[in-house]
Write a structure and sequence with these properties.
348 residues, H-NOX domain, 5-stranded mixed β-sheet, 17 helices, 5 strands, 55% helix, disordered C terminus
C-alpha cells in the first residue's frame, strides 16, 4: 500500500487525540521510512494499523473519516490525473486503470447499466472493512471536489456488517446506504457522470497518466506486464514494435517473454492493444493532436488501421468521438452552471 494512505490514517488518529507515532510503531510501521513520496507499506502491517486505530478511537466510522485527511499528493500522480479528468466518468476510468498506485489489495469494475454507472470495489486480498470505508469516502470526496460539496451518488452498498452507530456514516456520506451487501458498490447518475467538468485539463491528465504508468513499472519491476507496457510507451511512436524487439529490450528471448506473459494470463497483443487504447484516449483529448498525429504516435501504419481499432474500442471513429466530446463541452459551457473548481475539502 502506498505510504500516503498510512500518513492519512496517522493524521486522522491525531485529529482524534491519539498518539499516532506510538500506534504506527505498534503496527510495525516506521514513520521515517514513509518520508519518500513513493514509499510503500506491507498490507499486513496496514491491516494491523486499521485494527489498532479503531480500537484506540472506538469510532466505527474511522475509515470514512480518513478520507478527510487525504492530500493532493497522497496518491502520487494519480491524484492530479483524477482532478484533471474531463468528466467524472473519465476520472473513474482512470482510477480503474491506475488503482494499483494506491494499493495492490483492490481492483475496480466500472460500467454503465441502464441509466446509471456502477463502481464496484473488488478485494484481491482480505482487507479490513475500514479500508473499504476509506476508499468509498475518498471517491465521494473526489466527486464533491469536482462537482460541488452537495453532490451525492444514488446509492452506496457495503459488504461490512451494519455498525453499532451509523450517525457519522449518514452525516459524512449523505447517501442511501446498504450494509451486508453482496459487493462494495457506488451507483451514479449517468448524466452527471458524463457532464464535462470545467476544470478538465486533457494535457495535464495525459502527463499524469504517463507518470503513473512509469511509477507502476518501477515498483512492479518483476511484473512482466508492467515492463512490457513501459517499453511500448517508449517505442510505439512511428511504428509498432514487434514482440521480438520488446523481448530484446527486456533482455529476454521471445519464447521466454511469451511464456511469462502466458503465465500472467495475457499475451503481447493484448497488452499492446490496451496500451494503445489508453494512450489514444489521452492523445485525442488534447486538441493539438490531429488524428494523423495520433496514428503516428501509436505506431499504426495508416489512419484507416487506427480508425478500425478505435471503432473496436469505442464504437465510434476518432473524429466522431472527438466531435462528441467537444459538443458536450460546448453545451455544458452554454447551458449548465460551472462546476466547483478542485479544492481540498472534507468529505462533508
Amino acid at each position: 500500500m502506498l505510504a500516503g494512505w498510512v500518513k492519512a490514517i496517522g493524521r486522522t488518529l491525531e485529529a482524534a487525540g491519539c498518539d499516532s507515532a506510538a500506534l504506527l510503531a505498534e503496527a510495525g510501521l516506521d514513520r521515517e521510512c514513509m518520508d519518500s513520496a513513493t514509499a510503500r507499506c506491507p498490507l499486513a502491517n496496514t491491516a494491523r494499523l486499521w485494527e489498532i486505530s479503531v480500537a484506540a478511537t472506538g469510532d466505527p466510522a474511522f475509515g470514512v473519516k480518513v478520507a478527510s485527511h487525504i492530500k493532493h499528493t497522497t496518491f502520487h500522480a494519480l491524484s492530479y490525473g483524477l482532478c484533471a479528468s474531463s468528466t467524472l466518468k473519465e476520472a473513474f476510468e482512470r482510477l480503474k486503470r491506475y488503482c494499483h498506485v494506491g494499493s495492490y489489495a483492490v481492483e475496480y469494475e466500472f460500467f454503465k447499466h441502464d441509466s446509471a454507472y456502477h463502481c464496484v470495489i473488488e478485494t484481491i486480498e482480505d482487507v479490513p472493512f475500514e479500508s473499504i470505508d476509506a476508499l468509498v469516502g475518498a471517491q465521494l470526496r473526489m466527486c464533491r471536489s469536482l462537482l460541488g460539496r452537495d453532490y451525492s451518488p444514488q446509492l452506496i452498498e457495503l459488504q461490512r456488517p451494519r455498525p453499532t452507530r451509523i450517525d457519522d456514516f449518514d452525516r459524512l456520506l449523505r447517501t442511501p446506504l446498504r450494509f451486508k451487501a453482496s459487493q462494495n458498490r457506488m451507483v451514479f447518475d449517468s448524466e452527471v457522470m458524463e457532464c464535462p467538468l470545467e476544470g478538465g485539463n486533457p494535457e495535464l491528465a495525459r502527463h499524469c497518466d504517463t507518470i503513473a504508468l512509469q511509477y507502476l513499472a518501477r515498483i512492479e519491476h518483476d511484473d512482466i506486464q508492467a515492463r512490457v507496457r513501459e517499453v511500448l510507451m517508449q517505442r510505439l511512436e512511428k511504428m509498432e514494435p514487434s514482440q521480438e524487439e520488446v523481448a530484446e529490450q527486456l533482455h529476454l528471448s521471445p519464447r521466454t517473454l511469451q511464456r511469462r506473459l502466458g503465465d500472467s494470463g495475457t499475451t503481447y497483443k493484448e497488452i499492446l492493444d490496451k496500451t494503445r487504447h489508453a494512450l489514444a484516449m489521452a492523445y485525442l483529448s488534447a486538441p493539438q493532436h490531429s488524428v494523423s498525429d495520433v496514428t503516428y504516435l501509436l505506431g499504426f501504419s495508416c489512419d484507416s488501421s487506427f480508425t478500425r481499432a478505435f471503432r473496436r474500442w469505442t464504437g465510434q471513429s476518432p473524429s466522431d468521438w472527438r466531435a462528441g466530446t467537444r459538443a458536450r463541452v460546448g453545451a455544458a459551457a452554454a447551458g449548465k452552471p460551472a462546476a466547483v473548481p478542485f479544492r481540498l475539502t472534507s468529505v462533508r
